[in-house]
């Protein structure tokens, strides 16, 4: 059994009828519970629950303090390639888009890594376009080895791999994975992925499981909000996280609520969600899976990100460039999308501190390094 089988259970679920039956009293009882089941979680995503955001926020705040304290980890992405073989209608990297394509040489990767390290970052996400031709696993492995000299944690945000390929990258120094499903609706998934390897819905959906089996210790999940009904997407996204946490008890699960941002190409068939909805999703996820992390990216504006910190945020990006070689190249590759929060690392650190929280640049040491200190 994989998470694909779980999705099939809810393929014909009547969400509208379920939401119509939810009362204010039910929501109050759910918020008071210590442990929620999947239907409690779905109820917290209902229209009725919108009236109880404040109570949910207080509960989420206390849960986050219990499990994470006041620590907020800061990271930044590193784009090393933007060639892609997919035809995703919502993405600037779509292979049919006429954009500036680029792949960094290993020397350029090292230069970029050193620059990001010198800024103060110790946690990075390594990103490529989805092209085995221009950014094969061997290239990604070499990049990971270089980054491993500069950073405490290397997260992969690349195309879906086989288990054995993830094992190679974990051995090279990668420790975590971000894999957005984009949409959990299989029918819509086929319509927005017109061609390329990513069109295989099930293979992408099961990717986090292969990575966990290969040894990654942390997984970031979430749909791309705006492609489909947000309540259904958030529900299945939450179930995905619960499934991973139960099947791989030693793996940390982190959620993001990425909303579609302006990008090259055009795609207008959107299910837009407002900031209040983002808050409701994050709070419902925190109450459903208390040990899950919450990651707020620069897709959101600075004011929004600042206000979310006390509600359970555990990770924030800073100093972000979505261009290939954006920290060192004079002519970087095309950006994947426009960011909303363009603050520097120091500005984000100051914002976290002003909220009474602690910006964390490095929160763990690899086991090998710890062992060496005691030999």
Give the SSE map.
Elements: H1 3-9, H2 15-20, H3 24-32, H4 38-44, H5 53-68, E1 71-79, H6 106-119, E2 123-127, H7 137-147, E3 153-157, H8 163-172, E4 176-178, H9 186-192, H10 201-205, H11 207-214, E5 218-221, H12 230-247, E6 252-256, H13 275-288, E7 293-296, H14 302-308, E8 315-317, H15 345-354, E9 358-360, H16 367-373
Parallel strand pairs: 1-2, 1-8, 1-9, 2-3, 3-4, 4-5, 5-6, 6-7, 7-8
Structural overview:
The chain is an alpha/beta fold. 42% of the residues lie in helices and 11% in strands. It is built from 16 helices and nine strands. It has helices at 3-9, 15-20, 24-32, 38-44, 53-68, 106-119, 137-147, 163-172, 186-192, 201-205, 207-214, 230-247, 275-288, 302-308, 345-354, 367-373; strands at 71-79, 123-127, 153-157, 176-178, 218-221, 252-256, 293-296, 315-317, 358-360. Helix 12 links the parallel strand 5 and strand 6. It is globular. The termini are far apart. Mean pLDDT is 92; it is low at 367-375.
Order of strands across the main sheet: 1-2-3-4-5-6-7-8
Work out the strand percent.
Answer: 5-15%
What is the CA-based Rg, rounded? 20 Å
**Count of helical segments?**
16
The N- and C-terminal alpha carbons lie at a distance of 43 Å
Strand and helix order: HHHHHEHEHEHEHHHEHEHEHEHEH
Shape: globular
**Mean pLDDT level:** 92
In total, the number of strands is: 9
Extract low-pLDDT stretches. Answer: 367-375
Specify the helix fraction band.
Answer: 40-55%
Summing up helix and strand content along with how strands pair, one would put the structural category as: alpha/beta
Major sheet size, sense and barrel closure: 8 strands, parallel, barrel
């Amino acid at each position: 059994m994989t998470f694909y089988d779980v999705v099939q259970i809810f393929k014909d679920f009547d969400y509208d009828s379920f939401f119509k039956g939810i009362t204010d009293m039910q929501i109050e009882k759910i918020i008071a519970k210590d442990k929620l089941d999947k239907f409690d979680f779905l109820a917290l995503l209902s229209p009725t629950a919108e009236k109880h955001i404040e109570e949910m926020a207080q509960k989420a705040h206390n849960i986050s303090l219990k499990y994470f304290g006041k620590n907020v980890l800061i990271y930044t992405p590193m784009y090393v390639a933007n060639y892609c073989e997919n035809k995703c209608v919502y993405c600037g990297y779509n292979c049919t888009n006429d954009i500036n394509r680029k792949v960094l040489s290993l020397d350029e990767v090292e230069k970029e890594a050193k620059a990001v390290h010198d800024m103060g970052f110790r946690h990075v996400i390594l990103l490529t376009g989805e092209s085995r031709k221009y950014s094969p696993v061997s290239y990604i492995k070499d990049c990971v080895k270089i980054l491993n000299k500069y950073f405490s944690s290397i997260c992969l945000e690349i195309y879906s791999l086989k288990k054995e390929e993830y094992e190679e990258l974990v051995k090279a120094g990668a420790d975590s994975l971000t894999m957005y499903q984009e949409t959990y609706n299989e029918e819509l998934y086929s319509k927005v992925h017109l061609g390329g390897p990513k069109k295989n819905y099930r293979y992408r959906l099961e990717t986090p499981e292969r990575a966990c089996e290969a040894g990654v210790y942390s997984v970031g999940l979430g749909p791309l909000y705006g492609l489909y009904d947000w309540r259904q997407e958030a529900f299945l996204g939450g179930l995905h996280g619960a499934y991973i946490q139960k099947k791989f008890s030693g793996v940390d699960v982190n959620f993001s609520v990425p909303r579609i941002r302006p990008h090259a190409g055009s795609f207008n068939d959107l299910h837009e969600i407002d900031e209040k909805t983002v808050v409701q999703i994050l709070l419902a996820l925190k109450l459903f899976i208390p040990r899950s992390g919450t990651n707020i990216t620069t897709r959101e504006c600075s004011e929004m990100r600042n206000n979310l910190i006390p509600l359970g945020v555990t990770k924030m990006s800073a100093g972000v460039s979505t261009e290939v070689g954006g920290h060192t190249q004079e002519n970087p590759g095309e950006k994947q999308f426009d960011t909303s929060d363009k603050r520097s690392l120091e500005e984000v650190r100051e914002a976290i501190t002003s909220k009474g929280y602690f910006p964390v640049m490095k929160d763990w040491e690899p086991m090998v390094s710890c062992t060496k200190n005691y030999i």
